[in-house]
Amino acid sequence: MEPLHPSEPSAALASFSQGVGLPWRRVQPGGLINTTWVVGDPPVFVLQRVSAIFPEAIHARIREVTEHIAQRGLPTPRLYAAADGRLSLPGPEGTRWRLMDFVPGITHERVTGPPMATEAGALVGRFHRAMLDFPGDLTPLRPDPHDTPRHMASLQGALAACAEHRLAAGIRALGERVLAGWERWQRRFSLDGLPVRAAHGDLKLSNLRFDEAGRALCLLDLDTLSSMPLCCELGDALRSWCNRAGEGGRAAEVDLEVYAAALSAWHASAGFATRAELASLAGGTWRICLELAARFGADAYHETYFGWDPAQAPGRGEHNLIRAQSQLALADAVERRLLDLERAAPQPA
Q: Which residue has better confidence, 30 or 14?
């Protein structure tokens, strides 16, 4: 039988010899899913309470991948085992506690221009190249986060059920536009024939760590390690990096210079993409914007998945509707500039 789970950071730290007796403080603002504390003064470790959506088995995968990329010279935070040898411990309501290295540096929410995009693209390219010979299994351990048809079906279900919801009008207006955009995407693009690659799975800018000089150091939050077409992996990165309005802005616009700089640096570092993969990247960026709009739109109705910030909205549903509207605005901006984005893609050697 598993021991009783700790429900507070101090109790969780007591199970990891490295963190015993060290002070801790919660990181604000936190992520949408996991809760994070830094441990030590100055910080030396990161303690996380990992959402119940991630299976315990992800931690063995994280250790395997971080050992692999470290052997190839890439900096990466490493997990620490608890006193009983486990890489994570049970927490409240199906969550898991884990301890890992703290990487000194800066986390950015928005790309400031082409130099930062170049650094980000080069780092991700180094990661993808290092993972080309990864010998382990990267079969998804949970439902594929980029299973766009599944997310569109979930949104359709929310539209059918939302009549009595306080946000029904906003959810319906948004959802109908997202589904129309998805129909247009399917008429123009397909993932058929594209290879599946090792992927980080959540390359928003805040999952990259930078130093004070602006150099990109390492990738964070490896819970989404998986395999997928490159256009889904990089599409998620590019929709985050190239949005001039940031993650929550409604007046979204695509920064073409950032897009081109990021992809050029990625291609120079990775060096393996096929012509078909490179041609798919603009469409992949549009797809992921629509997908996230669908996910946030469905959760505006369900109010069960993503976290929310009371400073931004009065409730979870309201905040996720704002997020959905932001991603839909970005999807529209990407669609308007598809030809420019396709021209900006690097060419195979």
A: 14
The predicted pLDDT at position 319 comes to 92
At 15, the amino acid letter reads: S
pTM of the model: 0.91
Strand (E) or helix (H) holding 123? helix 114-130
For 160, the enclosing helix (H) or strand (E) is: helix 148-161
Return the amino acid letter for 149.
Answer: P
* CB proximity list for 11: less than 8 A, separation 6 or greater: none
What does the chain come to in residues? 349
What's the chain's Rg over C-alpha atoms? Answer: 20
For every residue of 327-343, DSSP letters joined together read HHHHHHHHHHTHHHHHH
- Which residue from 55, 51, 56 is spatially nearest to 30, judged by alpha carbons? 51
- Measured CA to CA, the distance from residue 65 to residue 56 in angstroms comes to 15
For residue 258, what is the enclosing H or E element?
Answer: helix 256-270
pLDDT at 251 over 80: no
Q: How many CA atoms lie within 13 A of 235 on its CB side?
A: 31
Q: Provide the 3-class DSSP secondary structure of residue 198.
A: strand
Cα distance between residue 122 and residue 101, in whole Å: 23
pLDDT surpasses 50 at 86:
yes
Domains of the chain in sequence order: 9-104 (3.30.200.20), 114-344 (3.90.1200.10)
